[in-house]
Amino acid sequence: MSHPSSDLPAASQPPYIANDPHETSGVQAGFQLPRWIWHSMFAFYAIFFIAVAAATGRDTATVMMLVISLLYMLMFFGTAGLLHKQKGREHDSPLDRAGGLLETWTGPMDTRTVAAQILAVPAGFAFLGIVVFLARASAGF
Asked: What are phi and psi of 102, to 5 degrees?
């Protein structure tokens, strides 16, 4: 079955504009998150574990569960750190630039949107840990 030809020129793909103008090799640019987001994630999880340990860490089984969970968290951050070191130095995050946008599958995102999406779960865990601690404290340790 033949397709009718058109007198219009073929539509061309728009040129690819790299998120980071310094990245010219076409390889993965890395995590592209500012350091403060990684530090915030770690701090939120630390708040969660400290609060839950203070509220519930009275018996061996609970301490064992907390240690296992803590090891999983350290494995998460440790793996990210190892991958970052293996890749070597990368360019600063586009979010560190004034008005910088992070290119994602769903389109460009500004710093506030990225922070809200990435830090929502860790902040929720920190809040949960504080609530558990306050509930336990109000009931008496």
From this structure: -100, 120
Query: Any long-range contacts for 71-78 (C-beta under 8 Å, 24+ apart)?
Result: 73/45, 73/49, 77/38, 77/41, 77/42
* Full-model pTM: 0.70
Q: Could you identify the residue written with the tokens 């219009």?
A: 8
Of the candidates 44, 14, 117, 38, the residue with the CA atom closest to the CA atom of residue 30: 38
The pLDDT tens digits of the residues spanning 76-114 come to 889 988 887 777 666 678 888 888 888 888 888 999 999
Helices 111-139 and 35-56, axial angle in degrees (round to 10): 10
Residue-wise over 56-69: b if at least 16 C-beta within 10 A, else e? beeeeeeeeeeeee
Phi, psi of 20 (to 5 degrees): -115, 115
